[in-house]
Design a protein that fits this description.
The chain is mainly alpha-helical. The protein has a domain of 49 residues. 72% of the residues lie in helices and 0% in strands. The radius of gyration is 23 Å and the shape is flat.
Length: 78
């Protein structure tokens, strides 16, 4: 198969432009939680104070588990 440096260069240029100009993303964070709890009852606020950190547990577990698995797998081992 014949190498086509111009096609590879063009593809690299197009991908670089596509990744350099990402679409804007609207973040959802503390203001959203604050607005959601502003008009709620004290019981709902208490439940949200417990639920928000509780929802972080699966994310932290997956993130940490990735490092544990990566550490146990030796390079070159199948």
């Amino acid at each position: 198969m014949k190498a086509r440096p111009f096609a590879a260069l063009l593809a690299t240029l197009v991908l670089s432009i596509a990744f350099a100009a990402p679409q804007p993303a609207k973040a959802q964070g503390c203001p959203l939680c604050r607005d959601a709890t502003a008009g709620s009852t004290p019981q709902a606020r208490k439940a949200l104070r417990v639920a928000i950190p509780l929802l972080g547990i699966p994310a932290i577990t997956i993130f940490a588990g990735t490092f544990v698995v990566a550490r146990k797998v030796k390079p070159g081992r199948k």
